[in-house]
Amino acid sequence: PPGFQAHAGAEIPIGGSRFVRACLKQPVDRTPVWFLRQAGRYMPEYQAVRRHHTLLEICKQPQLAAEVTITAAEKLDVDAAIIFADLLLPFECMGLDFEFQAGEGPVVHHPVRTADDIARLRTDRAGELGYVAQAIERVVAHFGAPRGVPRQDRLGIIGFCGAPFTLASYMIEGGGSRNYVHTKTLMYRQTDAWRRLLDKLVTVLTQYARQQVEAGADVIQVFDSWAGALSVEDYREFVLPTTKILIREIQSYGVPVIYFGVDTATLLPAMRETQADVLGLDWRTPLDIAWRQLDYSCAVQGNLDPITLFAEPELIRNRVRHILDQAAGKPGHIFNLGHGIVPETPVENVQHVVKFVREYAAEKAIR
Ligand code: CP3
Q: What is the pTM of this model?
């Protein structure tokens, strides 16, 4: 029908928020901006909630998760709100216990190491993740955003899930990793089991993403945070095919997909083959070089070094402008960091970035 854009077998309303428009490479009145990990420990309001609740409690109580999501988006005055959740939540419904240990990140109690471990993982209980969709419903209701309303100022609501490689690495290593020895060993030596593991993850992740879209998420971001640990050959052989299936399936629910990884300069052309609408860029490659390398065939998100937020406002402004200049003249740039905000970040510097992005747009409009 008119007013809709065909998209991987589904239809996306044209004329949504400037964030969704930018994801689809449609022209926008100004570059949208939001931040990876915009709700988190650097923010006193989050710390206050965290004093009374564990991370998992916040994730599992839709009212709390929605509150944290909304507070961060409003305090920063950004163009998109990412739902407060964690990458590892789907582990529980697959039968894996984990916890977040203070200062150490996530710990999986019985890491997945054998074909039998993989055979035991369940894929029939994704319904248990419904609390994330319920939190999204609350955020959507708060921002009063019926779908298809042509208003650029509407806030984009972002749902998310992990990508198969990054989630598999947490399952197999039992936590964060430096060299991914267990993960790559399983990948090389028990390739059939590796593929079964990734397939199981995709079965759960597609159901999970679908719940989030049905709850009103405008866009889904797929986090492949640690894909940069792979060579291009290994990425292509062991990771790309399943990731492509996941992303295409999510797109068929009618939303654009942002595919994000860190240290991915050499992987970008292969990541592009997933047909993701947007690729997240880290700060190591200049945005214009990365985008040109992709033939401008998708939108891009990024790519300020999150540690720049510790500099004086003057330097931050220069870096923000440099990124905007690199992206100028082409639709399809979403301003963001190259990775998440770290805990000690001064909140006012994050707010400065939002201000700088807006000011620069206004300046350009006058010229
Ligand atoms: O505002 C937002 O971005 C939404 C919230 C969000 C969290 N985790 C909450 C969280 C998001 C998008 C995530 C995704 C996530 N979780 C990723 C991918 C994003 C990335 O940075 O690449 C990863 C790798 C994880 C796994 C994870 N969760 C780790 C490694 C850690 C510990 C690291 C740390 O900073 O301590 C977490 C814990 C976590 N998830 C926190 C938050 C706010 C901090 C812990 C706390 O509040 O106790």
A: 0.95
